[in-house]
Fold this sequence. Notes:
Mean pLDDT: 81
Distance between the termini: 25 Å
Radius of gyration: 17 Å
Structural class: mainly beta
Number of domains: 1
Number of strands: 6
Strand content: 35-45%
Helix content: under 10%
CATH architecture: Beta Barrel
Shape: globular
Oligomer: single chain
Amino acid sequence: MNKAILMGRLTRDPEVRYSQGDNAMAIARYTLAVDRRFNRSEESNADFINCVAFGKAAEFAEKYFRKGTKLLVTGRIQTGSYTNKDGVKVYTTEVIVEDQEFAESKNSSSNAGSDGGFTGGSNRAPEPSGAGDGFMNIPDGIDEELPFN
């Protein structure tokens, strides 16, 4: 079984491109900084994991994910290789996203700097409701854009 479950913060805004042809599909690439649970020293360590999302999930990432956003991502690990312009073989490892979701509310992400997370990330997801219950108000008409329909 090939299954990866990651929780981390985006190191930068997702990079989104569209495939060529009649059925153009969005392809989003982003990197998650994932804290290591256990380390031998007192310093903070993180792994930087490359993720790739396709189709509606990529469009959702483009619209709502921003640097510093804390995400929960599940997917599969895929390895590959290519020869760069200098003739050197480069090996790649990335997570092909099957599911992605916010791991905190927008209010929590604005306080990310206090717990060692990335600062300056402005998450453009729908605003949390005024009741302070941590749930987001989903705008009308967004149902077609959600990757989990």
